[in-house]
């Protein structure tokens, strides 16, 4: 029993030494971790161990840590991010266009009158420039040109109305005869149409007209309102044309003053080119329409179709609506020939119309209009359809010149932006300064070459 206290004392001393050794090892491990150099490579996604974490006593195993979560933006694929960036910009652009179209619809009469004034100015402005070169003052040249142009357009309109009213009785008689001939043809045709069915159709038409008298009357009143709006638009277009012819340059400089200074130089270069495109389009369209009206009118006249001259004038006016106008005016001439002269004459008129239109599409337009206003046929069709849906006949008339001008402006601004980027890019460090300074560039004469005649 006397050895038991000594054994317990030895066990306690051994446990004390073990505890001291463990403490020494912990302190040594902590000193090793604190002596790691600050420049040691550490992964970005692995955070540093906290100060209170227990250190590993021994062994070469690395410290295990949980990787941090990536940025949510980086988790989205690149294509989706690009689509989202483009999507919200397209939404802003679409909203801006929608608001702009709403504003234009609210003041549609003013916008169409001003656009018509631009087209008339583009047609008359070269005459003003020639008169000024002959020595006439600006005011006198503008007055002479405007009065002559308005008188000619008014005489054309009066001539059309006079011819229609003068031949209206003869045309109604021929239409009646044509309807009777069509009725006889239907009775003898293989469609097995009976006279009672034809009479029922005529009676239904008469009843429809009789029951809708009130609607027809309201339509007539609405027609009076439309006539008032047309007269108002004509007056606005005339006044706008006068001011554009007389003071076009000052108006253009005032518009440039509204443009931000950084974009003013590009807009100032795009303006004359846009005006040159518009002038070329109006001149070419007038010449092509005049040729169409003369040749088709002569064909109709020699085929003894009534109202040949008014039909020729209608062909001239409808030629300002690309594609659609030619189809409508040609169909009108064929229908008049069919009703008044029969199937053979209508077929001959159709041949004449198609021949002249083929000549126009493949020879006249490429030769007269040239590449300055060349627009793809699909763009023409879509522009005419959109313009007609938005603003009716007026929108269909101005759609194609608007597309041609926009094409010219966008092309010039794209080239101008590339040129500015090249000028702003510093030369490479390997190229000598003298060589860069002596590099050939656009000549001042080419940079300042006039694009078109003096415009608005």
Automatic annotation (TrEMBL):
List UniProt keywords, sorted A-Z. Cell membrane, Membrane, Transmembrane, Transmembrane helix, Transport
Report the family membership: Belongs to the autoinducer-2 exporter (AI-2E) (TC 2.A.86) family.
Cell compartments where the protein resides: Cell membrane
Question: Ranges of Low complexity compositional bias?
Answer: 434-456
Q: Which superkingdom heads the taxonomic lineage of this protein's source? A: Bacteria
Q: Which residues cross the membrane?
A: 97-120, 140-161, 224-246, 280-302, 308-328, 335-359, 379-405
- Identify this protein by name: AI-2E family transporter
Whose protein is this, by species?
A: Streptomyces maoxianensis
Region entry Disordered, spans: 421-456
Which InterPro entries does the protein's record reference?
A: AI-2E-like
Annotated signal sequence is none
Membrane topology recorded in Swiss-Prot or TrEMBL:
Multi-pass membrane protein
Q: What is the lineage of its organism?
A: Bacteria, Bacillati, Actinomycetota, Actinomycetes, Kitasatosporales
